[in-house]
Amino acid sequence: MAFRIALPEESQILREAALQVEKQGLAEIEFVHQPHNLLNVAVKGEIHLVLVEAHWLGNEALPLLRRLNRVAPLVDIIAMGASVAEKKVVVDYQLDQGASVNDVAAAIRNAIEIRLLLDRAGLCGHSDNLRDAARRIIEVAPTDISVLITGPSGSGKELVAKAVHANSRRIKQQFVSINCASIPESLLESELFGHEKGAFTGAETKRAGLIREADKGTLFLDEIGEMHPRLQAKLLRAIDTRSFIPVGGQKPVEVDVRFLAATNRDLQREVDAGNFRADLYYRLGVIAIRMKRLSERPEDILPIIAHYLGEQGVAVEFTPDATDLLLRYGWPGNVRELTNFLQRLIVTIKEGEVNRDTVSQLLDQEGVADKSLPVVTGIRSEESGYRLIYQALLNLANEIVDMKRILTERLGEPLDKAGNHRLSSPPVRSDSGDLESMEENMIRETLYRVGGNRKKAAEMLGIGERTLYRKLKKYGIS
User: Fold this and answer.
1) Which residue did the predictor score with more confidence, 430 or 115?
2) 426: which DSSP letter?
3) Which of 111, 137, 216, 245 has its CA 20 to 30 A from that of 5?
4) Could you tell me which of 247, 176, 179, 246 has the C-alpha nearest to residue 216?
5) Which span out of 193-202, 334-343, 398-407 was modeled with the highest average pLDDT?
6) CATH classification of 133-290 is 3.30.70.260, yes or no?
7) CATH of domain 295-370
8) At a CB cut-off of 8 Å and minimum separation 6, what does 206 contact?
9) What is the mean pLDDT of residues 346-350?
10) What is d(CA 263, CA 174) in angstroms, rounded to the nearest whole number?
């Protein structure tokens, strides 16, 4: 399907720039005459990019663009005019009102290039972090330079690695991936470098190894920070010389492999601590791409949801308050957690409307909401403070439960008269004692401040209404 652009026909600069790009065969254009028509064509899923001028949208600029963000989160927006540069509106490219035709055309071409790359990589979103990653991919993919991809677990590091491979000259060759943290050191060497028959007990046949399997292609070393220093030295030599000696072998094997690596550790700190070789760190990190936490790039949340549900053929719509909850939740597990949430969602509902209660229930299902702090955006500071305090209280309760479990595992049962182990004090339960009183007081205070409005109280506390109802029943609060 061709890349399609919607824009107002009345804007001469936007029209000329779009026609220039269309003549280059990069896109197709659809002109609209009324601002609300932008929403109509975007909702139908026929548009990839919207061009607007602030003065054309008039007083409805911000409300319309916010609505466009919600109903068509996969659509990119290029806006001219400073009045739309407002935090609550996701605008992909902001241009000054005095931008030339060539400036606009360049922005369109850049938007198309980035969007096509993200689509090809299975990445979607509007954050600066994601676009910066895409630009790095464009720059480094045609080369054979090693790339180090960093970021928390579940943030999409392997997708970035696959994008580098998919846009390189090695695209028709193997992309081989290995998680260095999931394989014991004694086996990892054999997995990577292969072994000769009889090299060790159990080596009944010769094994080529993943480096040789990736010959002419790409080898992705996930969680490289977990690799033992001894193997780090052998890996460094393989990268430098493009050759290696299998376990139990005598002759070096030459390969043509591109090495990509990823880690959720701070490798510079690991180098300083003596846990990771400095020479390997600098060899792998010639180019570095950092993926941020999902809570640091909330602009990517709705596009990821839309992309995933579209791939699954699920036609659901989120109510505004459900959307707000999705955007405010912290997603400590990042993109992986969001994907797991969506998998639970499509088991629950295949089509129709998804309200806040449904989202809250699915988030609470595995206790997720009680284990992380939400992203506090678009709410008053007073609400933010109550939510953070309450979530911190719940986190403390979880930590006490974990501590009790650890102590029980280490010390066993309490000492009795026979001399068995005994804890110095009774274990603290998260649902009893002072914590229980603190929770009850927090809920009562919040209800008082919102005039007894349970929905508002749940929002301020950052929990689902059903969760709040259970707490009210537990404490006998009417």
Assistant:
1) 115
2) P
3) 137
4) 176
5) 334-343
6) no
7) 1.10.8.60
8) 194, 195, 196, 197
9) 83
10) 21
